[in-house]
């Protein structure tokens, strides 16, 4: 199961981007795509194994706020969840990664995907980024 957050974007372009992301994820054979309405709870579900992955923040208006990321990131990282940004940058989670990765900044990171494994996080990031690029054409 993959969780997402619809956010508040309702423009034609925004709806097209949401649909493209849903299609890309479902075409990959995901059994269920859910919206539970809380970024914190969504990341925590990934952390405890109730969901395989979570993605959100596909638009400037469609993004978690700092209060969403603070608790969710700490809880999920402690459980071993891998986070990636939808702008293609990796979040710096270790000192070694800090040199090449975009730092996780609560005030600056509105889009992300996360999963229990780096392989799944990479796949989800690639799917979402590709679908958004295609939707914008």
From TrEMBL:
Give the binding site residues for Mg(2+).
Answer: 68
- Pfam families, per database record: Inositol_P
State the Gene Ontology BP annotations: inositol metabolic process; signal transduction
Q: Which family does it belong to?
A: Belongs to the inositol monophosphatase superfamily.
Task: Return the InterPro entries for the record.
Answer: Inositol_monophosphatase-like
Q: Does the keyword Magnesium apply?
A: yes
Matching entries from Gene3D superfamilies are given as: 3.40.190.80
Q: Which PANTHER family match?
A: INOSITOL MONOPHOSPHATASE (PTHR20854), INOSITOL-1-MONOPHOSPHATASE-RELATED (PTHR20854:SF4)
Q: What species is this protein from?
A: Chrysotila carterae (Marine alga)
Entry keyword annotation includes rRNA-binding: no
Superkingdom of origin organism: Eukaryota
Q: Which UniProt keywords apply?
A: Magnesium, Metal-binding
Q: Which cofactor does it need?
A: Mg(2+)
The protein's name is Inositol monophosphatase
Query: Which molecular-function annotations from GO does this UniProt entry contain?
Result: inositol monophosphate 1-phosphatase activity; metal ion binding
């Amino acid at each position: 199961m993959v969780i997402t957050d619809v956010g508040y974007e309702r423009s034609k372009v925004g709806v097209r981007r949401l649909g493209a992301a849903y299609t890309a994820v479902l075409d990959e054979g995901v059994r269920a795509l859910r919206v539970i309405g809380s970024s914190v709870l969504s990341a925590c579900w990934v952390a405890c194994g109730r969901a395989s992955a979570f993605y959100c923040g596909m638009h400037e208006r469609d993004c978690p706020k700092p209060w969403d990321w603070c608790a969710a990131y700490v809880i999920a990282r402690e459980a071993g969840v891998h986070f990636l940004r939808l702008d293609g940058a990796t979040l710096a989670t270790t000192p070694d990664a800090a040199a090449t990765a975009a730092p996780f900044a609560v005030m600056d990171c509105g889009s992300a995907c996360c999963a229990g494994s780096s392989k799944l996080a990479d796949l989800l990031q690639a799917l979402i980024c590709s679908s958004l690029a295609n939707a914008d054409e």
